[in-house]
Amino acid sequence: MAESRVKTVLEAFDAAVKAGDGAGISTTLGELDGLLTTHRAELHPQLVHFLEGRSYAKALLWLGGRSEFAKPASPPGGCGGGGHRH
């Protein structure tokens, strides 16, 4: 039950980020911190790791959600795509 609530709040956070809703972002961040504090013992350790590190995109993807803010920072294969230069 706690994981489904975390997922719901992460989805609300994602929507707030997309909308540029500062109040919504602040509210959902507070909720996520509270859920982590209250339900840490019953949450999967990987999810706890993501939430502690504020890796919300990873947490949402791990829970099976979709997110626009959960995109890789660099293309597959590394950053820049060039070979090593000596």
Characterize the structure shown.
This protein is mostly helical and 86 residues long. It has one domain. It has helices at 2-19, 22-39, 45-52, 56-62. Helix 3 (45-52) packs antiparallel against helix 4 (56-62). The longest helix has 18 residues, at 2-19. The protein is globular. The model is unreliable at 72-79 (pLDDT under 50).
Entry summary:
By secondary structure, this protein is mainly α. It has helices at residues 2-19, 22-39, 45-52, 56-62.
Descriptors:
globular; single chain; 86 residues; mainly alpha
- Beta-strand proportion: under 5%
Low-confidence stretches: 72-79
The biggest sheet, with number of strands, parallel, antiparallel or mixed sense and barrel status, is: none
Helix content: 55-70%
Total of domains: 1
Give the strand tally: 0
Molecular shape? globular
Average per-residue pLDDT, rounded, comes to: 83
- CA gyration radius, whole angstroms: 15 Å
**Count of DSSP H/I helices:** 4
For the terminal residues, how far apart are their CA atoms? Answer: 54 Å
Give, in order, the helices and strands.
HHHH
Question: Which structural class is indicated by helix and strand composition?
Answer: mainly alpha
Outline the secondary-structure elements.
Blueprint: H1 2-19, H2 22-39, H3 45-52, H4 56-62
